[in-house]
Amino acid sequence: MPARLRTNVIGNPGMDETEFELVCLAVSAINGGGTCVASHERQLRQDGLSREAVQSAVRIAATVHASASPGQRGPGAGRSRGGLTVTRVT
Known about the structure:
The chain is mostly helical. Helices cover 56% and strands 0% of the residues. The chain has 4 helices and no strands. It is globular, with a radius of gyration of 14 Å.
């Protein structure tokens, strides 16, 4: 998938660009997309986030994913395949 395709497909994601990049970074990290992770990290760094903040976002995503993985909390608690579902709570 070519870089920047996400902005063509999701013109207005309903959140600010930095939040959107953080979500994309988390999903890419969970799905193991090294090229995508690097792209989102680069954009977040350009937006002013520190390396530590980016690293913390990936750690949080990994923790949430691990806690929702199958077998961790009983039947139907998570997905049977790698992936991350993002729900915005307002």
